[in-house]
Amino acid sequence: MALLPFFGSIVAVVLSQLWNPLGLHLGYPVKVGGNMKKLTIFTKRLQARRDDIKAQIDIAERRHKTRKHKAKEWLQSVKAIEGEVKVIKHAYDERCRCCGEFSLDIIGKHRISRRAAKKLKQVMELFDRGGAFEEIAVELPLPSIEEMPIASAVIGMQSNLEKILRHLEDDKVGVVGVWGMGGVGKTTLLKSINNHLLADFESFCYDHVVCIAASKGCKLENLQLDIAEKIGLYLKQDSSITTSHTSTIFNLLKNKKFLLLLDDLWEPIDLAGVGIPQPNGTRNQKIVLTTRFEKVCGNMGVHTKIKLECVEPDNAWELFKNSVSEDTVNSDARIQSLARKVCRRCSGLPLALIFVGRSMSTKRTLQEWENAIASLENMRLSGNSCMKDAHPVLSTIRFSYDILEDEQTKRCFLTCALWPEGYSIWKVELVDFWMGLGLQPIRATIEDAYNEGFSRIERLKKACLLEDGDVSDKEV
Ligand SMILES: Nc1ncnc2c1ncn2[C@@H]1O[C@H](COP(=O)(O)OP(=O)(O)OP(=O)(O)O)[C@@H](O)[C@H]1O
Ligand SMILES: [Mg+2]
């Protein structure tokens, strides 16, 4: 009799051993919907963890680190399991479509549910393994493209913009050269391309759009530093040998899709020396360069070149009117007709239209406008300083300078040439300097003298002779 409970517990154990797998199998068809739902949810979680880890790896790679084998293998496993989950989901959707969610096809339901449950286990394991990687501080990745500020509303640039966009989609074109005289709008065109791409970035699928200026006398090392900064690439500081930078840049860019907007080339540069892979167009590696000189386009081996011309008369008038302000132009019918004459004298050169327009924005008398015409005419007639032949920037600065009202302000402006080119001057330092030279009279109080000096700076800014410095309210 005493053996009975003993046998009873053995039977219970045997039954439970039999029931567990049996119960599991019987449960599969019932739980098919639930298992599929769980599988979808956990796969999404896994994908989110995968995206975070990828972003961390991307940052680490830009800082000269290489992805660990562990991470590499994990990413491959995620990719593989994603495909497998897709197959199961497809099979489930198909089955639901054919037989409905509540069909009595127990065997079919059993098979899918079992596959889903197995896969769910693997997905969860993979998710946990991803979480066990060492934490890498999450930094914001650098944007692949950044909006560039454009000074004024761009007028009459659309057809050139469209031309270049077409070349960017043409496999036969790797390097586009844009050339034209100073002030015609080359930099503005590059910025417009950049901003256009920014608005529709997805459809162009570049990894990087990099806009840098070469400018006169620029050094290869500086170009390398500029490019590295834009693509967030770490260049070892101790490496004074540029060839090491060259290969670092090259190795990052060679497998990337990039657009390099290279502005203001004065002479040909050795792209390979900088580390830029020679774009042949087919791999979405493109360069658009600008220069004042057609021969630079030739020497850089561009596949196509575009000459940027001055704007059409209607657009020129629009640009001029915007710079002068409608109020001034419309203040008197005679001023309007003189303004049209002044505008024509600018020969459609955007830089001249803007400079001259802004200089005239405060002029409301006929005499002032007639003076302006005479002064522009003089420039045109006075040998090599004419508007067309001289450097247009110089001519327009000359015009703005000539029409300044008082000699004192003219002299004050000339002192700015004592600072290096492109230097931001402290406004206070500049006024101090004028006071020291006796160009800025000391008034009743020193504060009055400073105020007068500051308003002189504002007048020079209005005439486009000075512009804001690095710290816009304190420097020029
Ligand atoms: N189509 C345009 N519409 C409006 N403004 C323009 C246009 N083209 C140029 N500008 C303006 O004219 C000025 C000179 O243009 P930009 O700097 O682009 O000339 P550039 O050809 O690059 O000259 P440089 O050879 O000296 O570098 C800028 O203030 C710019 O904003
Ligand atoms: Mg330029």
TrEMBL record:
Record-annotated membrane-spanning stretches: none
GO molecular function: ADP binding; ATP binding
InterPro entries the UniProt entry points to: Apaf_helical, NB-ARC, P-loop_NTPase, Plant_NBS-LRR
Keywords annotated in UniProt: ATP-binding, Nucleotide-binding, Plant defense, Signal
GO biological process, one term: defense response
Domain of life: Eukaryota
The keyword Nucleotide-binding appears for this protein: yes
Boundaries of every NB-ARC domain copy: 158-328
Signal peptide positions on this chain: 1-16
The protein, known as: Disease resistance protein RFL1-like
